[in-house]
Amino acid sequence: MIIRLSGSAPPTDQIRDQIRGLIASGRLAGDDRLPSVRQLARDLGVAPGTVAKAYRVLEAEGLLVTRTGGGTRVSTTATTTRRPVLDAVHKLVDTSIRVGVDLDSTIQILRAVWPTSPPDTEPARDPHSDGTRP
Q: Is this structure's pTM higher than 0.85?
């Protein structure tokens, strides 16, 4: 599992968001074991409480499950993101890096253009049809 801390977001948020991303992208699958709180904290150079807080939030969201003696694992009910979304995200990342836009700015742009309500997902109707078959 690869987690890197960078940018201005608090470490707890970065850890949480990156684990979410690893699950959503399929890089972490259901029942995969995560490093212990102490191990991940040591690897990232943060306090164990920082990692524990991120793990607790992800547990509350149903993405992680912690069992005494079994460690922390990805929930078997955690789902991955659909392929077209992953492809678009990879293209956004590549383009942002190529033109020199950093992660925080890219996220701000994405948040700014994100619709406040879901787009209409009903199939388009033929405006010239009266709904009956010929």
A: no
